[in-house]
Amino acid sequence: MAIVAIGQLCSTASMSHNLALCQTLVKKAVDAGAKALFLPEATDYIASSPQESASLAQPMDTSPFVLGLRRAAKENTLAINVGIHVPSGNGRLVNRSCWISEKGDIEAFYDKLHLFDYGVLRESNSVEGGKVIAPPVNTVVGRVGLMICFDLRFPEMGIALKRQNAQVITYPSAFTVLTGQAHWETLLRARAIETQTYVIASAQVGAHNEKRTSYGHSMIVDPWGKVLLNLTGGGSEAEIGLVDIDLDYQQEIKNNMPLLRRTDIYPQV
Ligand SMILES: O=C(O)CNC(=O)[C@H](CS)NC(=O)CCC(=O)C(=O)O
């Protein structure tokens, strides 16, 4: 058993402000006995335009935001999963999920494969899609598979991580209110049930600027599909939620209902 914390916040275009919020979340998580803190997609900042987003991005190794979180991880012996933006060249970005160990090292990262082009949000205007699925990373809270937000709509990715024995899968997110109300919980529960893993989905919440509001409802779902946590605070304050992860229970669910794929019949998927 290991306690994990989800941090829910409303990032703005100010990286120093967002880092300060994260530092308060780290304190709360540590005080509650958590071994790892899961922060949303784009925790470093949420900008008002693709241009502003591209102008704010910092290289991962020198970003004051990332360095600040690494220091907080090390000082508090707390692992941190966090979504950031990183320049990819030509004025474009990658949308990245980082695993920072409890020693403060970046042990793994994953660049979002699927980009969200819907309504006024056109992620592909500023972001390059990643090229690989990162293998699950061995952490203090189990073998963790890294995905991001819109990836949630692509079951193949979760299945690929299940095949590599992920015990926990993560979707740091910034869902829109409209699509969140319609799809968020259903998608998260479906991914948990079919992968038989714990699903940890920390989410941005509230109004980031005049143009953009996120749905919130950070969630943890167990490998049987049961919602263990659903943060419903409105976003005026950063908050955490806590869950005890039980990897023996996860193994039991897998043992009791083997999901053996017939890829001999459907090799296309
Ligand atoms: O813009 C940034 O800086 C960070 N990136 C995001 O917030 C991304 C792209 S706009 N948002 C989503 O993928 C929402 C997906 C969603 O809402 C759905 O699948 O329904």
Automatic annotation (TrEMBL):
Pfam families: CN_hydrolase. It comes from the Eukaryota. Residues 2-249 form the CN hydrolase domain. The keyword Cell inner membrane does not apply. GO terms for molecular function: hydrolase activity, acting on carbon-nitrogen (but not peptide) bonds, in linear amides. PROSITE patterns: CN_HYDROLASE. The keyword Hydrolase applies. Keywords: Hydrolase. This is Nitrilase, putative. The lineage of its organism: Eukaryota, Fungi, Dikarya, Ascomycota, Pezizomycotina.
